[in-house]
Amino acid sequence: MAVGARSGHEQPEDRPEDPTGAESSSASVTGGPGRPAGEDDDRTGASGPAAGAGDASSGSGDGDGASSGDGDAARRRGRNQRSFWKELPILVGIALVLALLIKTFLVQAFSIPSDSMQNTLQRGDRVLVDKLTPWFGSEPKRGEVVVFHDPGGWLAGEPTPEPNIAQKFLSFIGLMPSAEEKDLIKRTIAVGGDTVECKAGGPVKVNGKALDEPYIFPGNTPCDDKPFTKRTVPEGKIWVMGDHRQNSRDSRYHTGDVNQGFVPVDEVVGRAVVVAWPVNRWSTLPVPSTFDQPGINTAAALATSAAPPAMGAVGALAIVLWRRKRLTAGDTAR
């Protein structure tokens, strides 16, 4: 017992080294020899905040991604807006070119400035004129309402309105009727090869056939204000009259000009096919049935029936001449 007590107080007890390193481990934890506890705590604390920083970084990354996405969308919207404004002049240019082509080759609007075509057309009506068919060789036909350039002083002395720059531009591209062009609108009564006449108190006759003209302005006569004797329409020309006969300076009044009252087909702009404005006046402009009556095409029929015999005679004459030439050549060779 005493030995044990002495041994415990006088000398430290010899202990074998712990092969597992528990001593150093204990020192590390308590801050003894090895690594101080503070360092371990600092490192662990650093890793904690570092992890937190990682989380924060991750959250910041999401925020940056959203911000970046918003920025990309804004940039795309900006590019789209810039693209629209860049493309707008091109689209306007294409539209103007198309309008000009339509006006030049297809359809053109004209405004009715007078009462000469009442009641078929009223002053202020807008009509659409077919300009396509003339490009394919089509010529005006009897009964059609046509627009044509002044063939020789018909509008001399008539006042012409002075449009502004905008009106001139819109007229040029066909989006507005022209106010400067010297154009007229009348009904075609007779065409090349026809005979036409009208005596006072009588109807207009084409190729000897009296016309029934329900389109004449109520109260008017066919030609009592300006009757005319029979005349033959030259090829390539037409004879025109207004539906408001007593208020129309048409072919009857210009027989003394260079064209003798006839209108050259080359001066015809096209056929008026539709009253487009105002809306409550919308209507088509068909050919009246009186121009389809039997016998009115007599002149054309005679020309057609005479064509085959004439061509046959020309062919026979060519064959005879050819045979005579061969016989003459043969006699010369002998």
Features:
alpha+beta; 8-stranded antiparallel β-sheet; 334 residues; 4-stranded antiparallel β-sheet
Query: SSE order, as H and E?
Result: HHHEEEHEEEEEEEEEH
How many strand units?
12
Give the structural class: alpha+beta
Query: Nearest-angstrom radius of gyration?
Result: 51 Å
Query: Average pLDDT across residues?
Result: 73
**C-alpha termini separation:** 179 Å
Helix content: 25-40%
What best-fitting shape do the alpha-carbon axes yield? elongated
Q: Proportion of β residues?
A: 15-25%
Low-confidence stretches: 1-63, 300-311
Report the total helices. Answer: 5
Largest sheet: 8 strands, antiparallel
Please, could you describe this protein's structure?
This protein has 334 residues and is an alpha+beta fold. Helices cover 40% and strands 17% of the residues. It has helices spanning 2-10, 22-30, 37-106, 165-172, 298-333; strands spanning 107-111, 126-130, 145-149, 183-191, 195-198, 204-206, 209-210, 228-232, 237-241, 263-264, 268-277, 283-284. Strands 1, 2, 3, 4, 9, 10, 11 and 12 form an eight-stranded antiparallel sheet that branches.
Would you summarize the structure shown here?
By secondary structure, the protein is α+β, with helices and mostly antiparallel strands. The chain has helices spanning 2-10, 22-30, 37-106, 165-172, 298-333, and strands at 107-111, 126-130, 145-149, 183-191, 195-198, 204-206, 209-210, 228-232, 237-241, 263-264, 268-277, 283-284.
Give the helices and strands, then pairings.
Layout: H1 2-10, H2 22-30, H3 37-106, E1 107-111, E2 126-130, E3 145-149, H4 165-172, E4 183-191, E5 195-198, E6 204-206, E7 209-210, E8 228-232, E9 237-241, E10 263-264, E11 268-277, E12 283-284, H5 298-333
